[in-house]
Amino acid sequence: MNTGLNRTRWEPYVWLLPSLLLISIFVVFPILIVFKLSFSEISKAGVIGGFVGFDNYVEAVHLPAFKTVMLNTLWWVLSVVLLSTLLGFIIAMVLNQKFRGRKIARSILVFPWATSLVIQASVWNYIIKYEYGNLNNVLLNLGIIQQAINWRSSYQIEFVWECWVGIFVTVPFVTFCVLSGLQSIDDSLYEAAIVDGAGFWDKLRHVTLPMVRPSLTVSTVLNIIYVFNSFPIVYTMTKGAPAHKTDTMITYLYMLSFYERKKGPATALSVIGFLILCLCAGIYMVSVMRKEEQL
Amino acid sequence: MKKKLFALFLIVALMLCMVPAAFAADDEITLDVIICQYGPNTNDWFLGTGMDGSNFVDKFEAANPGIKLNLDVVSWNDVYTEVDTRVANDNAPDILNIDVFANYATEGLLMPVKDYCPDDLFEDFFPNFIEQSNIDGTIWAVPDLASMRALWYNADILEEVGVEPPTTWSELEDACQAILDYYDGEIYPWGIDMTTDEGQAAFAYYTFNNGGGFIDENGDWAVNSEENAEAIDFALGLVEDGFTNPNPATQTRYDLQDMLAAGKLAMMIGPNNMPTYVSDKGGEINLGYVSIPCADGKTASGVGVMDRVMAFKDDSAPDQEARNAAIAAFLKFFYDPENYVGWVSMEGFLPAVNSSVAALIESDASFEGWLNMLDTFHTYPSSKAEWDQCKQGVIAAEQNALTGADIQAELDALQAELVG
């Protein structure tokens, strides 16, 4: 009997051990290494030297492009996460209705999500290309425009295109997260709300939103992490050009490390990015959990 | 009991697997080699069937018993990441083919060429090429190939418009204006690449041909000279006047070459292997080339690009002499005209050794004109340790200037960074 109790105590840890081991080797250990590197001197060729304190951090924040890149990252994360959440929520509401072809519509929605980001970004590059782009071709053939439009006429517009592609590939993920939440809502809740005289907006506010909040929390937190760390879209579409004006933090630190060979500041930036991400995700999680406790 | 026996069996099997490797280690040397991917044929030539049905590795190993090659062909996009990661992990390749070398040399990672390169082979390299890898009297790398840049033009378009290929900047502006007027913007007169791929080349094309350049006559950094600012201003003026492709910061040379092949672009500065590229792309245009145009009253300067082969130190190698001999064998086999001519001509590059010149001209007479241009060969100051910084700096300066910044101020800031 006693042996059985002991076994119940340690058995979960045994089952968790492989996962913990893998996470330690492939996640925790590299993070610790990057922290250590950010306080070390790293040569242009990659040779690791001694401890340099916060020198790499000081150099990183004084780089000419630092401010632009941080602002870009803020806009990138906010626009992609907020707009994809909004669009994903609306599409999930539509797909939760009963209509003919619903299964096909849901299947189609998976495509952007299932395709690699590099392919998605390359395809969009072709679509908006000035010279032979599909968008110009279609508009010209339909007679909507008389001559081709340069859809990438300034770096600000190029950045908007990057955000749009980010939204386009993120919407399906949000949609399916919200859809799973919507499908778990018991119809009796809506029936009760109707009996109480609730309209569409009342049902949305008092039934749907509280019930899908856990799904939205998961999708938003994961999205913040995914979008912040997203590399392929920006790198494929502009490589941060001109002069890092369309870079986000992740592409910038890559360019810094492997193009400009400033590896010390690059590791410092990656630590800063990690801490920002932990902070954002932490604040969001705590605030949501508090609200759930209040409910 | 059965489980213990099984575990014992696995351990014994693993140990037995290591026995041949242990025996082999005594009399066999394996060289880790990284080669950059120059085009679609590189991988096939080194590892596939592109070398008369065989490949470089198989032929080398057959000709050099006791030396094995662990050779990777890596794309130019990834090679810096791969090499830096390997260096950081104390696992640098034995032999590396890449463009830059100064960082590795100044950080003490490379072996001097005299330690492994046979004298007869060393004498075979073009002297002005070998000098490009000289730091304070020590040669740290050998050239593997080169490409010359020239102004390529669509002869049909120029003939239709009635302009001659330009040789000076004012002729270039006139030709661009004539093409723009004639085709009403349907065809770009001039191509410019100021991307992170080749923005440094654009800097060289214009500054070299205005009496400027990256360094002065003493070899000191001089990126902010008046000539340089004037030259880049001229290039930016071409963009502002609508003579060029619309997005020079994101449209690479390959995008421009595609446009040239498709008849959408009239003129651009590109490498000597342009005809191969255009025909591979199915382009059916009449190509012509002339020297890169220079500023009025200035002397035209040829711009070339050269890549290198270098050997990293490996203090853990049990027999340094045998390792050096293996590296020498690799170089001798690679530069043997029987192999090297195929390698250079395959992607349409120019050779780096005298011994292959005659055979190359025999295989393709058009090489002769390009080889004659090698006398005016000017290239990047890649033997300076700050070259990476300079390269990225001039690209950033150009790109900032494209968005309205003052080019002189940008170059002044870069100069201060380089000499500071």
Task: Report on the architecture of this protein.
In chain A, β1 (40-42) and β2 (48-51) form a beta hairpin. The longest helix of chain A is centred in the first third of the chain and has 37 residues, at 2-38. Chain A contains 12 helices and 2 strands; from the N terminus they run αββααααααααααα. Chain A has helices at 2-38, 55-61, 66-95, 102-114, 117-127, 134-141, 155-183, 187-195, 200-228, 232-237, 249-258, 263-294, and strands at 40-42, 48-51. Chain A has a domain at 64-261: MetI-like fold, CATH 1.10.3720.10. Chain B has 2 domains: 19-146 and 306-371, D-Maltodextrin-Binding Protein, domain 2 (3-Layer(aba) Sandwich); 147-304 and 382-419, D-Maltodextrin-Binding Protein, domain 2. Chain B has helices at residues 2-27, 42-47, 56-63, 76-88, 102-106, 119-124, 127-130, 155-161, 169-183, 199-208, 226-240, 253-261, 274-280, 320-335, 337-346, 357-363, 367-373, 387-402, 407-419; strands spanning 29-37, 67-75, 95-98, 134-135, 138-139, 142-154, 188-191, 265-271, 287-290, 302-311, 377-378. In chain B, α10 packs across α11 (226-240) and α12 crosses α13. Chain B is globular, with a radius of gyration of 24 Å. Chain A binds chain B through residues 42-48, 130-131, 150, 152-155, 158, 238-245, 255, 257-261, 263, and chain B through 80-81, 83-85, 87-88, 103-104, 107, 109, 194-196, 246-247, 249-250, 259, 264, 385, 388-389, 392, 395-396, 399-400, 402-403.
List keywords for this structure.
heterodimer; A: 295 residues; mainly alpha; MetI-like fold; B: 420 residues; D-Maltodextrin-Binding Protein, domain 2; nine-stranded mixed beta sheet; 11 strands; globular
Sum this structure up briefly.
Chain A is an all-alpha fold.
Q: State the helicity of chain B in percent bands.
A: 40-55%
The whole-angstrom Rg of chain A is 24 Å
Question: Strand order within the widest sheet of chain A?
Answer: 1-2
Give me the CATH architecture of the domain at 64-261 in chain A, please: Orthogonal Bundle
CATH class of the domain at 64-261 in chain A: Mainly Alpha
